[in-house]
Amino acid sequence: MAKRRTNPDYLNGVPELLLLRLLEQRPMYGYELVQEIVRSTGERLEFGEGCIYPLLHRLESEGTLTAKRQQVGGRERVVYRVTRKGKGKLAEAAARWMRVAEAVTLVLHGGHNEQRQTAIA
Amino acid sequence: MAKRRTNPDYLNGVPELLLLRLLEQRPMYGYELVQEIVRSTGERLEFGEGCIYPLLHRLESEGTLTAKRQQVGGRERVVYRVTRKGKGKLAEAAARWMRVAEAVTLVLHGGHNEQRQTAIA
DNA sequence: CCTCCATGCCTCATGGTTTCAGGTATCAGA
DNA sequence: TCTGATACCTGAAACCATGAGGCATGGAGG
Fold it and tell me: Does a structural domain hold residue A5?
């Protein structure tokens, strides 16, 4: 009970974005992706299998990815590949991300002029 | 029914981060914050009142913010201010954000070396 | 005067996402 | 034999933002 939430560190949409981007570079299977995300982000991010596998299934059923089963040394792998449609989705997601990142950076670094009562002069 | 979700554009934690940062610059009330977020992000982001008000309440009950009621021309405003504790939270949230932003940027721009089967030489 | 819109506060159901904790099975090494 | 890595999977819980609603005041235009 009370399921401790030790990592209140939500980043909605980020797993999907990273997945698409990494799979665009080369086809991969789920277990591999979990580790590749850690590696390619320089240990900055980590997503559990419970996040990745369902996501892969969803993206496949949406037609964003295609899956191909492989037998490698008695173990099964499901290798995913980005479809054309998926590349479109990736482009959109990346654009959306950059937009958000710009917005947040702007505010954090006090970017946009803070004038307020100047209006009338 | 079926509540259309027109904007599948999630950014968990971002509203809280922006709120704290903006309130650090000057005290503000809820309705004002909703608009200020739009303005200060250069129209890149917008969060509804249904997001902002509950967040303010939560942050206040946590001791991150303090609230003060004001009467202005027959209308009531609840002005919020960041506490010392709140500034700590802001610092953490900002650091966490930057970490994530770095990670994503790294992957999007193909930052970390993609060597893979080189290992053995 | 009446109506509309902006201001200003609020709540709630819904739906989407991530986490955590499990479960299965194979294989290599100690 | 037992452990740990590989490799797949699921389901309950927690959390967050959306969107739609509701209430009340004040000012502007018809």
Answer: no
Helix ranges, B1-121 (H) = 14-25, 30-40, 49-62, 84-108
Which residue has its C-alpha nearest to nucleotide D12's C1'? A3
- Asked, for residue A34, whether it belongs to a domain, the answer is yes
Identify all chain B residues contacting A10, using CB atoms and an 8 Å cutoff: 12-13
CB contact under 8 A, B104 and A108: no
pLDDT tens-digit profile, chain B (121 residues): 333 444 444 568 999 999 999 999 999 999 999 999 999 999 999 999 999 999 999 999 999 999 999 999 889 999 999 999 999 999 999 999 999 999 999 999 976 665 444 332 2
For A111, the token pair is 């970017």
Question: Is the interface score ipTM higher than 0.90?
Answer: no
Number of structural domains chain A divides into: 1
Residue B7 token pair: 């904007």
State the CATH number of the domain containing residue A62.
1.10.10.10
All residues of chain A having their beta carbon less than 8 Å from the beta carbon of residue B104 are 14, 17-18, 41, 97, 101
Domain that holds residue A60: 14-108
Picking from B13, B22, B103, the nearest residue to A41 by CB comes out as: B103
Task: Determine, yes or no, domain membership for A117.
Answer: no
Q: Would you say residue B116 lies in a domain?
A: no
String of b and e for B81-112 (b: at least 16 CB within 10 Å)? ebbeebeebbeebbeebeebbebbebbbeeee
Cβ contact, residue pair A45, B21, below 8 Å:
no
